[in-house]
Specification:
about 80 residues, mainly beta, SH3 type barrels, five-stranded antiparallel sheet, about 45% strand, Histone acetyltransferase Rv0428c-like SH3 domain-containing protein
């Protein structure tokens, strides 16, 4: 754990603008048990986090967060 993290719930210490990856648990009706969300934190509150990905904002309830960590900035996109 890095400084400022709440034991067991590191996402509560994330700051808006931080790039993160979140592993979230999906419901039993889904084909897969987990999925990852990669992007920039745009909201953190008692309910969970919102991460803005390349496809748009994703709300992740705290009860579905299995793992999460801060990751380095995205590499610059290569010209086409």
């Amino acid at each position: 754990m890095s400084g400022g993290e709440t034991p067991g719930v590191p996402w509560r210490s994330w700051r808006v603008g931080t790039r993160v990856v979140v592993r979230r648990r999906l419901g039993p009706e889904e084909e897969h048990l987990y999925t990852d969300v990669l992007g920039e934190v745009t909201r953190v509150d008692d309910d969970g986090v919102q991460v803005t990905t390349r496809r748009g904002p994703v709300d992740v309830p705290g009860t579905e967060i299995v793992l999460g960590k801060v990751v380095p900035p995205a590499p610059p996109r290569r010209p086409r």
